[in-house]
Design brief:
Layout: E1 9-17, E2 27-35, E3 57-61, E4 67-74, E5 80-88, E6 96-100, E7 105-107, E8 110-113, E9 116-119, E10 129-133, E11 137-142, E12 144-153, E13 158-166, E14 172-177, E15 184-186, E16 193-203, E17 208-215, E18 217-219, E19 222-228, E20 233-237, E21 242-244, E22 249-257, E23 272-275, E24 278-282, E25 287-290, E26 295-298, H1 369-372, H2 390-398, E27 413-418, E28 421-426, E29 454-455, H3 457-465, E30 469-472, E31 476-478, E32 481-483, E33 489-496, E34 502-508, E35 511-515, E36 529-530
Parallel strand pairs: 9-16, 12-22, 27-29
Antiparallel strand pairs: 1-2, 1-11, 2-5, 3-4, 3-6, 4-5, 6-10, 7-8, 8-14, 10-11, 12-17, 13-16, 13-19, 14-15, 18-21, 19-20, 23-24, 24-36, 25-26, 27-28, 28-30, 31-32, 33-34, 34-35
Length: 531
């Protein structure tokens, strides 16, 4: 049943199809239609009608304790559906009872409510319903009420899970009593905590609604614990009794939510040592900028990059760029070129503070893209990110202690392709390679090409979940000319070398090193980290 309805009822009539001599069993079909109600007496999330969806199933019992499961066979997306016998016994002896969804039924008058309700986006999912009738016509009534959480945060954050702890059990085994509008649930034998798990984390920078169904009753204790993408959390206690009524919505509004702990939005889970006693998390992808709106963001995927479209760089360009001259954060460092769209090919235009001996740190830290700018999908606040120093890049690739991977101790990096994109794979300090994914080879080998390790997008999802980072070979820009896309990777550090050069990481087929021969005017990739 579309998970965007609540109080809708249905009438069902069983049709018995006679079998031909060649058939071995009867075909049974329930016909269900919506009981229309007024807007005020219905929990209405999408129109006034009950709407069936593909895959919906109901469980039906008869007086002889026969139990069958019936699946939607027609009427998807409408208020009139037919359910054909799918599995279990056929039913024939009145009275009949039916439960939706079929998966929660455990007996003729018993169900088990889940401790975790799953929803792709927070919309209502499979609200339990019950019907009973003596004449094979069944009218469904809701077994629970709905709590609508209206959430908004004080800063950009995406919620992945909402858990409610109460003073009474909200899930587990329950007995159905009564029928029609007086149907009730009793003797719940589960726990007092029910969780709504979101398939996709949802941004609550602006108010957003989430739905959870709970048994009817008055809850004297009602604690809402929210978990954000990356593990940050926020817990609120509702300081009033919460009354949940069967077939109605109870709204709980929580505003200015502040999350703490866990990872910053946009940070990957893997932990990497960049100095003795200092660890960082990498951003979810390379840094990108849109000049027409002044917006910074991280690439959606680690293997994403802009490529040749960087040649369109300008102060009004409405597309995205991801190859930047050194220190071009937008902060006026005293250099002639400090804006992200700078294209001058004179290295003297890129001195931070007008000096050849300033790093993008200390008094000139604002020249660092991650320090000066709010990254829209990276916490959306300045000062959360930074660019690694030369020494940190060197420690990351060449010095740190790390796990043993495929027989190689201190596995730090490997060249390879991810989703058909060439680049460098970085293994976190602590790493267990996922089962079912090919073991990496040529680990810690800089003088090899990219073909030794080839991972699909699905392989990469498993590896990324285990903490791995990927630096794609995004090429470089000189003025408005873009070169080496897909074959070479160049990544800035925050460290100067001399009047015209800053340190960078470079990798090509057969080579990987941290080197100094990088003109400040060249546009390289930027990958930020979070301490």
């Amino acid at each position: 049943m579309r998970k965007a309805f609540i109080l809708a009822a249905a009438a069902a009539t069983m049709l018995m199809a006679s079998c031909s001599k060649e058939e071995s069993k009867e075909v049974q079909t329930f016909k269900a239609s919506a009981e229309q109600t007024s807007e005020t007496s219905k929990i209405s999330l999408s129109g006034l009608s009950l709407r069936w969806s593909a895959g919906d199933q109901i469980s039906v019992y008869d007086a002889a304790s026969n139990n069958g499961v019936y699946a939607l066979s027609s009427g998807e997306g409408t208020a009139n559906g037919e359910f054909a016998h799918s599995s279990g016994s056929s039913v024939s002896a009145a009275p009949f009872s039916a439960v939706y969804p079929a998966s929660i039924r455990t007996g003729a008058t018993t169900v088990s409510l889940p401790a975790t309700q799953s929803s792709t986006d927070g919309g209502l999912q499979e609200l339990p319903m019950y019907a009973v009738g003596d004449d094979m016509e069944l009218k469904f009534h809701h077994l629970c009420g709905v709590v609508r959480f209206r959430l908004s945060a004080s800063s950009a954050v995406s919620v992945s899970r909402i858990a409610v702890a109460t003073d009474r059990n909200t899930n587990g085994a329950a007995t159905i009593s009564g029928s029609g509008s007086s149907v009730t649930l009793s003797t719940l034998g589960g726990s007092a905590t029910t969780t709504l798990s979101l398939g996709t984390a949802q941004d609550i920078a602006s108010a957003r609604d989430f739905y959870m169904y709970l048994p009817a009753g008055t809850y004297s204790t009602f604690v809402v614990a929210m978990t954000a993408e990356g593990g940050a959390s926020c817990t609120k206690t509702v300081n009033r009794a919460i009354v949940v009524e069967r077939g109605n919505i109870t709204t709980i509004t929580l505003t200015d939510l502040a999350f703490s702990g866990g990872l910053t939005q946009g940070a990957l889970s893997g932990e990497f040592s960049v100095a003795l006693g200092r660890t960082v998390h990498f951003s979810q992808g390379n840094l990108q900028y849109q000049a027409s709106t002044g917006t910074w963001r991280f690439a959606t995927n680690q293997y994403d990059y802009i490529g040749n479209a960087n040649s369109n760089i300008s102060s009004t360009y409405s597309g995205w760029i991801d190859l930047f001259g050194w220190g071009t954060s937008g902060w006026n460092s005293g250099a002639n070129c400090y804006q992200p769209w700078s294209t001058s090919t004179s290295y003297t235009d890129y001195y931070p503070g007008g000096s050849s001996t300033n790093n993008l740190t200390g008094s000139y830290a604002n020249a660092d893209w991650g320090v000066y700018n709010a990254i829209s999908n990276g916490g959306n606040a300045a000062g959360l990110w930074r660019t690694p120093t030369r020494e940190e890049w060197d420690y990351l690739f060449n010095t740190r202690s790390a796990s043993t991977v495929n027989g190689t101790s201190n596995a730090r990096f490997a060249k390879g392709t991810v989703n058909s994109e060439a680049g460098v794979i970085l293994f976190p300090d602590s790493y267990t390679h996922p089962d079912g994914v090919a073991q990496p080879t040529n680990i810690n080998s800089s003088g090899v090409n990219y073909t030794g390790n080839n991972y699909s997008a699905s392989d990469w999802t498993a590896m990324q979940t285990a903490g791995v980072v990927f630096l794609p070979a995004a090429g470089y820009r000189s003025g408005t000319t873009v070169n080496d896309v897909g074959s070479c990777g160049y990544y800035w550090s925050s460290s100067y070398y001399n009047s015209d050069i800053a340190w960078r990481v470079i990798f090509i087929s057969g080579r990987l090193c941290i080197e100094s021969n990088s003109s400040r005017y060249d546009g390289w990739s930027v990958r930020l980290v979070r301490d």
